[in-house]
Amino acid sequence: MLILPNADGQLLGYGAGRNKIRAFQGLAADNELPCRVRGTILTDPTQGDSQVAALAAACAEQKHPLFKISGAKVFVDGVVEGGTAYLHQPYAHKPDFRGEPLWEQEQLNALCRAADRQNLQIHIHAIGDAAIGMSLDALEFARQHNGQRDSRHLITHLQIVDDADIARFADLNVVGVPQPFWHVKGEYFWGLEAKYLGRERAEKEYPMKSFVDAGVTLASASDYPVQVPSPPLVGIMLGVLRCIPGDPDPNEILGPAERMTLPDMIASFTINGAYANFMEAETGSIEVGKKADLVVLERNLFDIPTEEIGDVNVLMTLFEGQAVRRDSL
Fold first, then answer.
1. How many other CB atoms are found less than 10 A from the CB of residue 269?
2. Domains of the chain
3. Torsion over CA: 290, 292, 294, 300 (sign)
4. pTM for the whole thing?
5. Cis (ω within 30 of 0) for the bond into 180?
6. Do the strands 67-75 and 63-64 form a parallel or antiparallel pair, or are they unpaired?
7. Strand residues in the chain grouped as ranges (E)
8. β-pairing verdict for 294-297 and 314-319
9. What confidence tens digit (pLDDT) does each residue in 140-197 have?
10. Closest CA to 1 of 276, 274, 225
């Protein structure tokens, strides 16, 4: 996530992102980026749709194959642990409060319509079910006014989701961006989420398989630097298990019905991520004619217990056919 050089960036605590555009631009120009970076620029709720022209101009300036800015980043709400996620029903520990959105619906609608009209991709942070509903309403508003196109707008985190909204993701071709590293219980679940949301609602956190069954593209992510470390193999493992490895207690599984298959989890970290960034024609899978962006693993993930996937070593990483990392062991 980036911010414009002249933006304050302090509203959501991201002032330090001011120099990222120049940094990535320089690395790409010097051929020192061993990956493809696709960024979005943080929007300010106080500026409404008046900021879209500057966003579009910034995106147009960054067209290097290794560094592009695709559009707008929008925070619609906060987080459950801070009591700032926007919920349909009140918090269990604050029965008169259900959080507050950072945007009014009318403002969010206007921003999404203006950004979509400029062919910008919109990447939305939405934790609570009410925030997700607002986000879908705004993206639907944009489609109604601008017409349907291959926009691939994204909503990330998807912690508390209204069942009725899952089908809307598919209808609007919205990509879901979950963080499967969080799809377990443990101390965080019992110490915060179950208390703040209530046990029944907390047990339904972070659906994944329901999205896949509805035909929604899921592109798994880390939410770096919030989640550190964030090895994809650990994310793949936890998406399948939905519990801490080695815990035999069935009560510690977060939504057993939401357990993913191994092929679907691998796809969510590979080809679906490429699709989310409009790069599926050049990377994301091993096919003739694509870039040779590969990892070589020491073990076949389909031949080992799921609990061991997170411990598999990456022997080599290739970017466009060139080794950019080798295991030193």
1. 20
2. 15-287 (3.20.20.140)
3. positive
4. 0.94
5. no
6. antiparallel
7. 37-42, 63-64, 67-75, 121-126, 154-157, 175-177, 294-297, 314-319, 322-326
8. antiparallel
9. 999 999 999 999 999 999 999 999 999 999 999 999 999 999 999 989 999 999 999 9
10. 225
